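Batch manifest, entry 17 of 40.
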Amino acid sequence: MFFEADEEQIARLQSLDLVRLMKRLLHAECRLIDIPLRAATVPLQITVPDGGEDGRVDWSGGMDSTDYLPGRFSIFQSKAQNLTEKLIAAEVLKRPKKGAAKLNAAVLEAISRKGSYIVFCSRKFGGQKIKKLQNAVRKAVLEGKKKPSNLKSIEIYDANRIADWVNTHPPVALWLASLIKDRSLTGFMSHEAWGRADDIKQIPWIADETRRFSHNQIKNSEIKLHSEWTFEEAAAAALDWLEKDQAVLRIAGPSGFGKSRFAYELWVFVKSCGSVFMFFRSRGGCR
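Output type: structure tokens
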């Protein structure tokens, strides 16, 4: 993949950017299995008390799990620092100056709901260290007088695994590449950045039913074919076309007729339909 992420990129992320990455990944995963984005909650206020939780995914219906969400309820703790067994145990089991040690609120909820507890860490770990960190969580849960077996899963997502996850969602990989800026992105910008361009921001999009778009090879069985399409018909047909394996969409027309704006609004339409594709804008036009 052109914008492939690697563990070095993840390791360079500061605390807030790591949480921002986690939020994008959780939303992308929700889109992947067609569940509402509201199933994922990731506050970006990282300096306020969080009870041991930086994000969560909670859904019903549809698939039971994904490659990176072990079950229907998962709580994430983000850590942009090296982790030791002592540090991870202290995160899970809080020891006040007075009184008995107590499990943090996030772990308690995960246990009560037989959910998963996932540590999302920007550092690189080997397999043996990951096992030791998982065991440290289990021991802390036992010391907190709860059964680790009541957790569906205890996961440590280090920089290597996070990079693998990012690469399953090309739009997230592009966002990360633009954030890190350790490779040339000349000629490319994300949809979010494109929306800040003057020709998009200052000129409002006016949707109407005018049939102004013609088609060549794209066909959509659910749309009655006309010699020309409305924007919604053209966008729906383009979406149907792009769902095909290795499909490429070419937008053609005279200079100044709105090819780039059509591509921009097409992506807005795609998001409204809950689908995920990758669009780029180059300085010479659309790709």
